[in-house]
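dumping this here before i forget
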Amino acid sequence: MVSDGALYTELAAMLRAAGIENAAQEAQWILEDLPEEEAARACASKRCEHYPLQYLLGAWEFYGMRLFVGKGVLIPRADTEALVDAVLCRCDAEKPLQIADLCAGSGCIALALKQQLPKAAVCGVEWSDTARQYALKNAAYHGLEVPFHHADVLDPMTAAQFSKLDVIVSNPPYLTAEDMVQLQTEVAYEPAMALAGGADGLRFYQEITALWKDSLRCGGLLAYEVGIRQAEAVGEILKAHGFVEIEILPDLCGIDRVVLGRKTLHKETTD
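structure:
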């Protein structure tokens, strides 16, 4: 049996030789989750094939929350925390807000918002039942009452079931057709339906904005995560649909990552 230090050195060397960029840190993460020698070696060996570490460990951290992930669900990324921050900065925690997370995936956005806004009614909508099961498991694990609906956000019948929402938030598929054929090996293991956003990557922004704007209250917030160099185009989509106070916000790396706007203020019609 090797010492912890020797095993760490061995795993880091394995990962480095396989071209894993953050080999030392990943070796540490593996040992933290899998202290048993053979399990740690098996995990590192699979990681050397560039299989996602998050799937191998079965969980990943997002906004201070440990979330279960696995094959069939998009891996939560630190970039998306900028979207959560942007929404939280524009919400009153004392109000019983109605919030919907579209293309909810693992539930990371919805659950982070619910944790920080306990008085809000937060729900998620996700078409993949595999991903939805992870979201439900994560909600149960953290004791958060967040329902996740199995539905297609691009179906008009889905949008029609929601009304007078205060916030719609979404990290939709946004990779272009070109991006999809040039995926990093690790990303290629993630579900294509959670990545592909049409030829120009803008399909979901166009269709969600058109379909769901009527589900928002007047003055309600629509907030998106966007891909690199998409922010201006998404801002124009919001503008074309009458949204105002449009903002583009960066992530921690300084990349324009969040686009948001408010539904035009005017007198609401009565039901």
